[in-house]
Sequence to fold (615 residues):
Amino acid sequence: MSAAATLSVRNLSIMFGGVHAVEDVSFDVEPGEVFAIIGPNGAGKSTIFNLISRLYEPSAGSIRYGDHDLLSLPAHKIVNTGIARTFQNIELFEQATVLQNLLVGRHCHMKRNPITNFFFTPGVRKSELEHRRKVEDVIDLLEIAQYRDERIADLPYGARKNVELARALCAEPELLLLDEPASGLNNEETDDVGFWLEDIKHDLGVTLVMVEHDMNLVGQVADRVMAINDGCLLAIGTPDEVRDNADVQQAYLGVSE
Amino acid sequence: MQVLFKTAYNDDLKFLAKTGEKVRVGLVVVFLLAAPLFLQNYYLAELGLLLVYAIAGIGLMILTGHTGQVSFGHAAFLGIGAYCHSILMAKGVPFSVSLVLTTTLCAIVGMILGRSASKMHGFYLAIATLAFLILVETLIGEWHSLTGGHAGFAVPSLKIFGVSMTAVWKQYYVDLFFLLAVVLGAANLFRSPTGRSFLAVRDSELSARSLGVNVEWVKIQSFGISAAITGLAGILLAHHLTYLAPDVFGVLESLKLMLMIVVGGLGTILGAIFGAIFVSLLPVALSFLKDVLPAGIGQQAGLEPLLFGLIIVLFIVFEPQGIYGRWMKIRFFFETFPYYRKSSFVRQKSYLKTERMR
Fold:
């Protein structure tokens, strides 16, 4: 798996009624980097993710990933270009087991013919076992083997977070959109997430884009940071540059005059 | 309580992993196979009808229990199946050909309904499917030249590959064969990608979409498969009824199917079968009740639909997981005896879910 494509967002805007949730935002994410998006609540961070994964229709701008014009694709085709995502408020399949959730993560790589599935032909069995092996690699990486056969509804919050990350990894993405991977986790769990993100970056070569409030985590893993406020871009740069930026400080802490 | 020791990924593809499950299912299958030996014809015919309703229940279960799409119009597919098959057979088409044509027709009609319903949710979907049912019922009633209208339509006798199957025990085995095939097929479906995409759409359309599931297409597929299976039940039902009338396939029949899957337990194949047993025993209990109750109440016309509605409400309030859920609890009680506590099955609060985008 090699990340070779650049995600380039140009002049992206979206209106909800009269509100500019995102206004004229442009940025590039280079292959192999960890790119963090920060900003106060309601700044439009998750909206940018929802625009990239085509759950929202932008009012202006373009999103390209390598050779793909994402805006010409429907939402369910985005994962085929190599982009997977997680959600801020866990969106797992609650009544299904962890294993079933992860196998849905493999969905984009699977042939699915209802007729052969109904008869469970030898071909279907073979493909199930192959994909199961891939899923097992992810289970090992994120250490969720003990939950394998549990229903999501029976899992604690932290485990659900891991399962959601695992499910996105099962799609074998080149680029992973992480919407607040550490929200709601305790310090120890947040440290774990930090290590995993570095593993995912180095071992799997996945480009990471994440929305995160935990600045320690951002400082630990991010190569570049983009700060936005009220839908407008404030600064892009290394974590230190962005932290020292006057506009960013004003957005977070208020005016100092 | 048996703890499973799995040594191969194939172990997870087995339907019945635990010894207890194998024994129980084996006993039920043996009972069903041997039933004609010790059951009188009347009870055998009733049991056959129960199997037919179990097939219809599995059909609706796939759509409502597994894909999360409510349908109050499934009696329409029973009707389309029954009528289409009877008309074809009356025109001299052999059973096997008619079986394929009828289920295909039902699948196509189901997919068309699914196409128009794929953007609807909850209440609106319920209304749309109900409207579809009324449409089909009216169509069957008014299309005199083809269906015989309200005068009814005599179902040709059951003949498979030229062999008459009208004897009660033969017909029973036909029903049993199709039920076992449908159960096996449905179970296959849910250990393969298609079935998983159904579950995904039920639990979160949002993340299903972002994982590459074409949500609209999955709903259309689910409607199609569900309609085909319910249509198959319609074919078998026709041979039990021997005389078709459009009002058989009305709202009450739909409600009965819905009652079956809610009472049986949504989201499980076993639930559909429990539900079929329940609705088959209900008329017996009802006729008993009518004798016991004072005539003023017992002879009221609307007693049956009232009870249907009441039972659905009571189950939703007190046992949302239906008979299947209750069965799990009883099993768990014995498996973990004496450690079972009431709180073992208290539902965990679901974590915050906002930002629902539809």
